[in-house]
TrEMBL record:
Coiled-coil residues: 39-111
Statement: the UniProt record of this protein carries the keyword Coiled coil: yes
Entries under SUPFAM superfamilies matching the protein: FlgN-like
Similarity comment: family membership: Belongs to the FlgN family.
Protein's recorded name: Flagellar protein FlgN
Keyword set, alphabetical order: Bacterial flagellum biogenesis, Cell projection, Cilium, Coiled coil, Flagellum
Role summary: Required for the efficient initiation of filament assembly.
A Pfam family reported for this protein in Swiss-Prot or TrEMBL: FlgN
This protein's record includes keyword Coiled coil: yes
Length: 162
């Protein structure tokens, strides 16, 4: 690719790809740590990891915005770049770096999603447990009676007088 005014600035683009790859590797490590902390139920460490994760996420957003701006000059974005005719103009090494970056993005997304679901599940379990301990019942919970019919938990009858 030539570096005419209308063309992509390859030096800047390559630098941004390398920077994003480095940050995403760090982010992936933090997500792995977060997963381990969730599994071990270490809430204090989770708060510390969340702050590190937030700081890295801000850096990633900033560099991603710069990369998007670089690609916007060619009416491209990172995900459409691989399928565009312009992709073949990159060297094999640059193509591999771009594909690795896209794989890292997907891996981080999947890890972050899994961690978020784990936290949500634990939160739901904790809330339900606290509701049971405190005697609160959800009115919309449907249970099956001994005859197999659906019943709600709203009005529970007692077994009778002893």
């Amino acid at each position: 690719m030539s570096q005419n005014t209308g063309e992509l600035n390859l030096k800047q683009f390559s630098s941004q790809i390398v920077g994003l790859t480095h940050l995403l590797k760090q982010f992936s490590e933090i997500l792995d740590q977060e997963s381990d902390v969730i599994k071990k139920n270490q809430a204090n460490q989770l708060v510390q990891i969340t702050q590190s994760k937030q700081d890295l996420a801000e850096q990633l957003n900033s560099l991603t915005n710069e990369l998007d701006q670089t690609l916007a000059n060619q009416n491209l974005n990172l995900s459409s770049l691989v399928s565009s005719p312009s992709f073949t103009l990159f060297s094999q090494e640059q193509q591999a770096e771009i594909k690795q970056l896209l794989e890292l993005i997907q891996q981080c997304h999947d890890k972050n999603l899994a961690n978020g679901m784990s936290i949500q599940i634990l939160s739901n379990i904790n809330k339900h447990t606290l509701d049971l301990i405190s005697g609160k019942h959800q009115q919309d919970v449907k249970l099956y009676s001994s005859s197999g019919e659906k019943t709600t938990t709203g009005n529970q009858s007692t077994l009778g007088k002893a």
